[in-house]
Amino acid sequence: MIRVLLADDQSLVRAGFKALLDAQRDIEVAGEAADGEEALRKVRDLRPDVVLMDIRMPVLDGLEATRRITEDAGQQDVKVVMLTTFELDEYVFEAIRSGASGFLVKDTEPDELLRAVRAVVEGDALLSPGVTRRLIAEFAARSKEPAVAQSLAELTEREREVMALVGIGLSNDEIARRLVVSPLTAKTHVSRTMVKLGARDRAQLVVLAYESGLVRPGWLG
């Protein structure tokens, strides 16, 4: 059972998400929070698998709450998915750097929300498919000049290739087709790359791909 914490200051939004999630056999809403401070307390008390975190909340915003959750060594297994009203919210870039596993716009289709919750638990989620490439392009444009990353020296040539494909927003299935390998093999390469680089998930792998210069703006086509 996937346990989800809903953190949003709008009760109507929480109610809608709760009705959808609780109707699934493999998902349950473990709790709700109306601000960032309450979300931190609920994460410590309830130990959810996933937090759906609104970016703009009173008392403590979702960005700072996410940073505190992901920096806590005791909460490394908790995945945070940011919720935003706009597809390219200015805070999304910092949220991903802060450890968020991705983000979803609030008007995401129900099926996509469910897919995202399930996928993020498996370490497969990044961003809403409809905005992935636009967001990555914008992130790349805002990034600083790439620095030489010594850690990339630990990667094999194939792992660097896979990391670059993750960096331009390809899913495991798309990577498998591009490299003519099985989806399982692609997933294994992605997992090994994350382990070697100490990346929390695919979102951080994308950040590293750009910050290391392995992927550069303009490669999205």
UniProtKB/TrEMBL annotation:
<dbReference type="InterPro" id="IPR001789">
    <property type="entry name" value="Sig_transdc_resp-reg_receiver"/>
</dbReference>
<dbReference type="InterPro" id="IPR039420">
    <property type="entry name" value="WalR-like"/>
</dbReference>
<dbReference type="InterPro" id="IPR016032">
    <property type="entry name" value="Sig_transdc_resp-reg_C-effctor"/>
</dbReference>
<keyword id="KW-0804">Transcription</keyword>
<dbReference type="InterPro" id="IPR011006">
    <property type="entry name" value="CheY-like_superfamily"/>
</dbReference>
<keyword id="KW-0238">DNA-binding</keyword>
<keyword id="KW-0805">Transcription regulation</keyword>
<dbReference type="InterPro" id="IPR058245">
    <property type="entry name" value="NreC/VraR/RcsB-like_REC"/>
</dbReference>
<keyword id="KW-0597">Phosphoprotein</keyword>
<feature type="domain" description="Response regulatory">
    <location>
        <begin position="3"/>
        <end position="121"/>
    </location>
</feature>
<dbReference type="InterPro" id="IPR000792">
    <property type="entry name" value="Tscrpt_reg_LuxR_C"/>
</dbReference>
<protein>
    <submittedName>
        <fullName>Response regulator</fullName>
    </submittedName>
</protein>
<dbReference type="Pfam" id="PF00072">
    <property type="entry name" value="Response_reg"/>
</dbReference>
<dbReference type="Pfam" id="PF00196">
    <property type="entry name" value="GerE"/>
</dbReference>
<feature type="modified residue" description="4-aspartylphosphate">
    <location>
        <position position="54"/>
    </location>
</feature>
<feature type="domain" description="HTH luxR-type">
    <location>
        <begin position="148"/>
        <end position="213"/>
    </location>
</feature>
